[in-house]
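Figure 6 in text form: structure in, sequence out.
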């Protein structure tokens, strides 16, 4: 269950925060639950995912360091290909996507 927080509180956590546009990693983060979210005057702003010592902020108004759009597209497409492979069991798909997430974070922080 995620809790409501402020963008300031997320920035002050000390972990690096990376900004990803709305739905740019929907397939990659499909089975990962966000730990928090923020709102703005219009409503929901973004969700926060804590993955391998970094925070990924994704939504309509995410915060953090900009990420390469092409890198996000590449890994989201790889994740989509895994989820679309029905010859694999759900557990196998999930394992492959978790490895992909790890690889994505390594490239993101390099």
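Output sequence:
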């Amino acid at each position: 269950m995620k809790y409501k927080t402020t963008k300031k509180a997320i920035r002050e956590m000390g972990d690096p925060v990376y900004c990803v546009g709305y739905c740019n990693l929907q397939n990659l983060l499909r089975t990962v639950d966000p730990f928090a979210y923020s709102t703005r005057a219009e409503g929901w702003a973004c969700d926060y995912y804590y993955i391998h010592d970094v925070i990924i902020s994704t939504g309509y108004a995410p915060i953090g360091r900009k990420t390469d759009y092409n890198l996000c597209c590449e890994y989201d497409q790889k994740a989509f290909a895994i989820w679309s492979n029905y010859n694999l069991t759900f557990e196998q798909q999930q394992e492959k996507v978790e490895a992909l997430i790890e690889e994505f974070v390594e490239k993101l922080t390099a």
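Caption detail: The mean pLDDT is 95.
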